[in-house]
Amino acid sequence: MKAEARNSWHKIVSHIHGLAFSSSLWQLQKRGLLSNRSFQLGEIEGNPGYLHALFRALDSLGWVERRGPLGTAEMTVDWSDRGAQIIRDAACLKVVPTLLEQALDLAEGAEIKMPPMEHNGPFSEWLLGHQVGPIMLGALLRPQAPLQDQAQELLVKLDWRNSEGWTEEGHFAFLQAGIYHYPISYLATLMRVEELLFGDATSLRQRTDDGEEGHVDRRRDILFSGQVFSGSVATVLWDHFLPLFETEAPPQTIIDVGCGDGRMLLELGRRAPKARLIGVEYNPVAREVAEENLNESPGALALHGDMGDPASIAAELAHHGIDLDSVLWVTKSVIHNRPYRVPRTSGRQGTTSAVCVDPQGQVIPGGDLEQNLLEFFQSWTPFVRKHGFLVVEAHTVLPQTARKHQNRTLAPVLDYTHALSNQLLIEASLFRSCAYEAGWRSESQSELGSEAFGHDHMTVDHFVA
Ligand SMILES: C[S@@+](CC[C@H](N)C(=O)[O-])C[C@H]1O[C@@H](n2cnc3c(N)ncnc32)[C@H](O)[C@@H]1O
């Protein structure tokens, strides 16, 4: 990677860390919880699940170390030297609630109302993120619109613009700017961390019965996902996908579960033009967009369905006369968003380092998380036939792995935002071992993400059940 590209990526990562963590650190600061070098989690009155997720993420950033029985009230948190040095300046985070409110307006093209943040102190880049992120998204989405003076000033300070336009570093930042969709899509959650950490943990209802969601701006999340697909997943995916259509009896139907706007499915369809395309979505907005986009493919359908309820999806497919033996199932970044159910079998000893949280704000015991994933795979087994399930999934990594790459990795952000919205990231190795335990095997597999993050954080598997 060129030095300019590396520099812009480091700044982007700091901005996104700022967007994801400043509001939570401010809540700790407001309660005087940043003054002790060391404390037990049980001393903090709040929702343990979200607090544990926060401190695991700060561990991944190298700001704290956790000792004792992780995930319990007896766990001790020590600020590392670096963390202790940084939090001394945490009083400046009082502007964060206002910055977060402004970030949404900025992303929609409004003018900056506050003076640009001064560029000094350990939180400087973190705070800049609240303005730079939305400004860069605006520039990306409306490239023809002139930048406002304050926005230009801010980007000049970052060495991303000069009087002639984008600098070389700024050009790389512009190319990578779509990544800001991710934290901005979680603003609704990040603005309410006070309730999640310390108040009524159930107040931010993730999903109503008809599939509407309150924790994430799905439109942006899907834009971000699309960028991940075209930016890093697509070329790897073709290695696994194309050979399946070079056989004598290829799949006749491709079903993408959690298809988002349907664009990935259309891309798959372009490379397998004889196959019928079916998108399955539980989010009504996404389903409608998918339906519109899939119109260009004859016979395509966008059906309502939940990844956590394969039997209902299969019933809907039967209703449309689809033979499961003809189906290649596909899914990307959806399994971790399955609804969590307390597993049928209890008592499993877990080995995961992940902190996943149930909607009541409690830590899901690691063994239950693994068992729930195993039972999820088992629930799909009757419906995954000879063409199998092509699964692209995001994963958590051990905090010590993330720490080694703390200037490059977004793992702490992905872990924390997923935990805040009750999504179930687990390590790649455990993800696969639960699939194997359910009797699945991976016919071909790849790992992704190390180029940007320094470590793998996504996997592609062609599973056969
Ligand atoms: C991160 S986006 C990925 C979209 C698309 N698969 C892609 O990779 O571009 C997750 C998508 O899955 C949908 N989704 C999440 N949980 C789901 C579930 N349990 N069942 C069906 N769809 C789900 C969301 O509405 C969203 O469109």
Could you describe the 3D structure shown?
By secondary structure, the chain is of the alpha/beta class. The chain folds into two domains: about 5-200, no CATH class; about 220-465, Vaccinia Virus protein VP39 (Rossmann fold, 3-Layer(aba) Sandwich), CATH 3.40.50.150. It contains 19 helices and twelve strands. It is globular. The mean pLDDT is about 90. The protein binds S-adenosylmethionine (SAM).
Write the layout of secondary structure elements.
Elements: H1 3-30, E1 38-40, H2 48-60, E2 64-67, E3 76-79, H3 81-87, H4 96-107, H5 124-141, H6 149-157, E4 161-162, E5 165-166, H7 168-176, H8 181-185, H9 187-190, H10 193-198, H11 218-241, E6 253-257, H12 263-271, E7 276-281, H13 284-294, E8 301-304, H14 310-319, E9 327-332, H15 366-380, E10 389-394, H16 399-404, H17 411-420, H18 428-437, E11 441-448, H19 450-453, E12 458-464
Parallel strand pairs: 6-7, 6-9, 7-8, 9-10
Antiparallel strand pairs: 1-3, 2-3, 4-5, 10-12, 11-12
The chain binds S-adenosylmethionine (SAM).
What features would you highlight for this structure?
binds S-adenosylmethionine; globular; 19 helices; 12% strand; Rossmann fold; 12 strands; 7-stranded mixed β-sheet; 465 residues; 2 domains; 45% helix; alpha/beta; 3-stranded antiparallel β-sheet
